[in-house]
Specification:
Number of helices of chain A: 0
Distance between the termini of chain A: 41 Å
Largest interface: A-B, 26 and 34 residues
Shape of chain B: globular
Structural class of chain B: mainly beta
Low-confidence stretches of chain B: none
Order of helices and strands of chain A: EEEEEEEEEEE
Mean pLDDT of chain A: 94
Strand content of chain B: over 45%
Oligomer: heterodimer
Low-confidence stretches of chain A: none
Chain lengths: 111, 116
């Protein structure tokens, strides 16, 4: 069964304290791995798509990497405005095109 | 450019009632997907439509139905509402058919449905 597991469930950081969020997946034929940011009560905001192992993408303080089993979202020198829930999703090769989401990591950055 | 829009923003219904949620995709996008997000969980796939045809269905009961119109906007209908249907309903649009590679999906703000 296709599955996505995110860890940790919650992460508290001080401003400027770099860290990483993990997304491990079990999927039959990965067609794409997606990272989203979600603020409370809002829809997910698209961040990155990764398609093959070894691929990396960066946006401001965020960097996403992909291996054959997992993806990492690295946050460098985070600021309070980076506080949000970060969702990881995969599209499986045999799927109808739907995304399979993890439960997310709730990130809190304190000033 | 306008992103994905959804209406209404919030909705309160009672058990047994029917609800219709609406979504307008990004201009030029022909694919619309619907997801349900319960508090504390990731979104779960309900339906996908491409070029006005249903292309995928998640594990939801027949009380849930949807359709896509010629202008690519979409409606999600839920009949005989249950307390457990309370959730954030998200619409996502994509420029490609669901089974395509490079199928990035962009989400709207969601409709918060509360069933009393």
């Amino acid at each position: 069964e296709d599955q996505v597991t995110q860890s940790p469930e919650a992460l508290r950081l001080q401003e400027g304290e770099s860290s990483s969020l993990n997304c491990s997946y079990t999927v039959s034929g990965l067609r794409g791995l997606f990272w989203y940011r979600q603020d409370p009560g809002k829809g997910p905001e698209f961040l990155f798509t990764l398609y093959s192992a070894g691929e990396e993408k960066e946006k401001e303080r965020l960097k996403a990497t992909l291996t054959k089993k997992e993806s990492f979202l690295h946050i460098t020198a985070p600021k309070p405005e980076d506080s949000a829930t970060y969702l990881c999703a995969v599209q499986a090769g045999g799927s109808q095109g739907n995304l399979i989401f993890g439960k997310g990591t709730k990130l809190s950055v304190k000033p | 450019d306008a992103g994905v829009t959804q209406s209404p923003t919030h909705l309160i219904k009672t058990r047994g009632q029917h609800v219709t949620l609406r979504c307008s995709p990004i201009s030029g996008h022909k694919s619309v997907s619907w997801y349900q997000q319960v508090l504390g969980q990731g979104p779960q796939f309900i339906f996908q439509y491409y070029e006005k045809e249903e292309r995928g269905r998640g594990n939801f009961p027949d009380r849930f139905s949807a359709r896509q119109f010629p202008n690519y906007s979409s409606e999600l209908n839920v009949n005989a509402l249950l307390l457990g249907d309370s959730a954030l309903y998200l619409c996502a649009s994509s420029s490609r058919q669901g089974t395509s590679v490079y199928n990035e999906q962009f989400f709207g703000p969601g409709t918060r449905l509360t069933v009393l």
